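Postdoc handover notes: sequence design on the structure in folder B. Input tokens:
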């Protein structure tokens, strides 16, 4: 495998210094115990990975242990699938918790006992004010809070009430348990913080055993203390919470050496969405294929794209551990991936956009095997494979130029180029098809140049990749790029997130040709396709005989440059974002050359480009994409004619339809732009969810048809008319008489279960908010 990569010795960041000092002083008797405490309410993302690398890394470096502890004290959001997801992703990253797997919810009983200690010491009380009253009496940053009427309850009274809270005697919100610290602290979090609340909810592990749940500030420090954690590391937002952390442990009676909390900067990654709240709408709208979509910054997505775990660890080492928040340049991750793959990935040949080459002087029907090394000289790995060579080959279309620009070093009419590991060839004629496009190159090869050397010493400047046509394998290649056109902003509504999706974040190349060796290797091999980038077979769609490759990363950074070009003067059609000579074919400029040329030749298209950007408010990328040909632009215009919502229609056309139609042209589809407009209108009118609309669109692509009719045929109408909903409600309430009784007996929390049942019965077509309103009205009557 790859050489270990030296990224400097850890032990220099401030957390490591603290741990080192504690080790030296013997504060914990030479023991180090850290923990990684995810809340199982989503899948792991790259920010979590940073925390995993830090906590597990510390334990490894100092010979200690790192606990995996699920912070599952919040009943409603947790899920077993997420629990397993974290374990899988942590193992993949290369870390192991050994026997130290814990669930915070297993400590509920002990936490309860600690609360009794506080009550008996007069340091906690049951407050029966409403949450609004509690908030109002807490004061402000400039004004101290006021004591409420229940603050001076006796310990006996508090014990009794707290026991009855636990026993389920009260409804949600009737009482809380609060710490009795003081209402004048400059730290708002210290003004008699709430420790427990009543929540009649089902817990995925504890079932219905508990109806009081501890809050984070109370629970987390106790979990650390129960497990004898030494260094409890969390992100900066928790700085003010440290005071409660210490207060609880000291007052419950944990003596030094007890755990202490330290804060470090959270990871923010340029262009990435790292929170569940932002990823969920993308998954639900079908904009990404799931939590493991390779464009997402989830660990599942990163894994599926083909990033090796070493690269993610290297990235975490590179960004380091700091005390101040900052946004990390996305290029750093790519750099880390290249660093690792450059030293480990075998080089093979693939052609993305093939053009046929016929070697007219090579004997017909014969072929030979060439010995080709997998690694260049500077990579300390060995291995070769044999590559078939024959009379008919494929090379990249971009490696031939009829009218070469200055400095073009590849194939030109009459010129020579070297085929990697093969022979030197000379182009004698370019054959054109009826449209004037080059369809085939007739060349001769120089038999004296096997292996690429020229015995006569003549200079051949360029070397290009190729594959033998009869031996090549067909492959689908997925090129991934930044998911968003710009950095997502926290305030943005879900719709805005969808509209900002980069229409070229996934480009599927269907007709690629790869050398046959890739089919016999281990499917998990990550390759460098020479001059193109790093790739591996998609672990979901690329199994068995199906050759589907994901691009893991390009060979060089191209995004920064393209983003610059896009920013400067895209509206002026003078943009020259042409591909620099020698750049890999996988790189795409902000404004494609081809579409640029189409506009130069058609003033109507050029005019539309301006209008889309200036008047319709489309991004330059969308405007460019939609004016590359009359075909796409007319389709867009027709859709707008039916539903004038340019951004939404552009997203449908550029992202969803683009993915669904594959290589088919728009004119070959069984419906026109009007159909797409009508579909978008149904979504805008709230008659159809965006998720369901995507299914309708898939049907339309296959069979055509009127969207409204398809919606009713497929049973996808959003159920919002209350008549239909009431009927479903009746059924559900009838089916669960016990639960209805429980609800009426005070377990209001189970309304969520009813909502779930109604949603299921309506096949997801009902609006959950309306359902909830109707349900509560019905149940409370
Ligand atoms: P999210 O809302 O994105 O899931 P979170 O902080 O609620 O984030 P938790 O599951 O509670 O996620 O976090 C588990 C651990 O991972 C915590 O110790 C937390 O500090 C850490 N963590 C989460 N996000 C980041 C991040 N972006 N950078 C560094 N550490 C993070
Ligand atoms: Mg969270």
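Designed sequence:
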């Amino acid at each position: 495998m790859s050489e270990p990569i030296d990224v400097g010795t850890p032990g220099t960041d401030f957390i490591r210094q603290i741990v080192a000092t504690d080790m030296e002083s013997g504060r914990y008797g030479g023991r180090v115990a850290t923990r990684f405490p995810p809340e199982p309410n989503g899948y792991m993302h790259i920010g979590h990975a940073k925390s995993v690398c830090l906590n597990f890394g510390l334990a490894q470096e100092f010979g200690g242990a790192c606990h995996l502890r699920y912070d599952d004290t919040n009943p409603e959001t947790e899920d077993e699938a997420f629990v397993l997801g974290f374990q899988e992703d942590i193992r993949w990253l290369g870390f192991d918790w050994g026997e130290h797997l814990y669930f915070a919810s297993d400590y509920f009983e002990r936490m309860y006992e600690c609360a009794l200690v506080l009550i008996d010491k007069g340091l906690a009380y049951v407050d029966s004010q409403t949450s609004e009253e509690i908030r109002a009496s807490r004061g402000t940053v400039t004004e101290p809070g006021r004591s409420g009427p229940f603050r001076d309850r006796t310990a006996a009274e508090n014990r009794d009430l707290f026991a009855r809270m636990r026993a389920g005697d009260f409804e949600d919100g009737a009482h809380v348990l609060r710490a009795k610290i003081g209402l004048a602290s400059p730290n708002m979090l210290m003004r008699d913080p709430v420790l427990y609340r009543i929540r009649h909810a089902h817990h995925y592990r504890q079932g219905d055993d508990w109806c009081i749940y501890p809050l984070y500030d109370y629970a987390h420090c106790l979990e650390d203390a129960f497990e004898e954690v030494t260094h409890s590391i969390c992100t900066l937002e928790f700085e003010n919470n440290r005071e409660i952390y210490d207060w609880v442990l000291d007052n419950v009676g944990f003596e030094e050496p007890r755990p202490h909390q330290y804060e470090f900067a959270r990871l923010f990654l340029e262009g990435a969405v790292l929170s569940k709240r932002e990823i969920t709408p993308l998954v639900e709208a079908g904009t990404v294929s799931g939590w493991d979509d390779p464009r997402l910054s989830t660990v599942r997505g990163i894994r599926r794209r083909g990033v090796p775990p070493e690269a993610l660890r290297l990235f975490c080492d590179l960004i380091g551990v700091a005390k101040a928040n900052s946004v990390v340049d996305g290029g750093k991750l790519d750099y880390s991936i290249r660093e690792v793959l450059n030293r480990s990935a075998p080089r093979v040949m693939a052609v993305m956009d093939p053009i046929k080459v016929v070697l007219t002087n090579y004997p017909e029907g014969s072929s030979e095997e060439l010995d080709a090394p997998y690694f260049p000289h500077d990579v300390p790995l060995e291995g070769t494979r044999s590559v078939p060579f024959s009379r008919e080959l494929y090379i990249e279309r971009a490696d031939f130029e009829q009218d070469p620009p200055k400095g073009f070093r590849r194939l030109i009419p009459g010129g020579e180029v070297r085929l990697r590991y093969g022979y030197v060839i000379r182009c004698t004629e370019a054959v054109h098809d009826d449209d004037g496009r080059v369809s085939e190159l007739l060349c001769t090869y120089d038999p004296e140049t096997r292996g690429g050397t020229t015995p006569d010493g003549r200079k051949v400047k360029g070397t290009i990749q190729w594959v033998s046509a009869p031996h090549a394998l067909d492959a689908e290649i997925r090129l991934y790029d930044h998911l968003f056109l710009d950095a997502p902003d926290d305030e943005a509504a879900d719709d805005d997130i969808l509209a900002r999706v980069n229409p070229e974040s996934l480009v599927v190349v269907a007709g690629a040709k790869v050398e046959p060796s890739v089919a016999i290797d281990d499917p998990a091999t990550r390759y460098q396709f020479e001059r193109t980038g790093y790739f591996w077979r998609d672990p979901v769609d690329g199994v068995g005989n199906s050759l589907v490759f994901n691009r893991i990363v390009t060979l060089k950074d191209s995004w920064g440059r393209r983003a610059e070009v896009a920013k400067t003067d895209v509206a002026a059609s003078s943009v020259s974002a042409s591909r620099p000579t020698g750049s890999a074919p996988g790189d795409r400029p902000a404004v494609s050359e081809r579409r640029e040329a189409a506009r130069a030749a058609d003033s109507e298209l050029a005019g539309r480009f301006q209008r889309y950007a200036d008047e319709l408010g489309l991004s330059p990328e969308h405007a460019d994409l939609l004016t590359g040909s009359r075909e796409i632009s007319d389709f867009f215009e027709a859709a707008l004619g039916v539903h004038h919502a340019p951004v939404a229609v552009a997203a449908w056309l550029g992202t969803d339809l683009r993915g669904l139609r594959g290589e088919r042209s728009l004119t070959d589809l069984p419906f026109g732009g009007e159909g797409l407009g009508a579909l978008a209108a149904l979504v805008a009118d709230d008659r159809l969810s965006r998720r369901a609309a995507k299914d309708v669109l898939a049907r339309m692509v296959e069979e055509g048809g009127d969207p409204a009719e398809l919606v009713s045929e497929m049973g996808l109408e959003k159920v919002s008319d209350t008549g239909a909903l009431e009927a479903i409600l009746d059924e559900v309430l009838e089916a669960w008489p016990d639960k209805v009784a429980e609800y009426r007996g005070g377990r209001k929390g189970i309304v969520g279960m009813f909502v779930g049942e109604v949603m299921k019965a309506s096949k997801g077509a009902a609006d959950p908010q309306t359902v909830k309103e109707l349900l509560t009205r019905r149940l409370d009557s």
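Context for whoever picks this up: DSSP finds 27 helices and 27 strands in the chain. Don't rerun without checking with the PI first.
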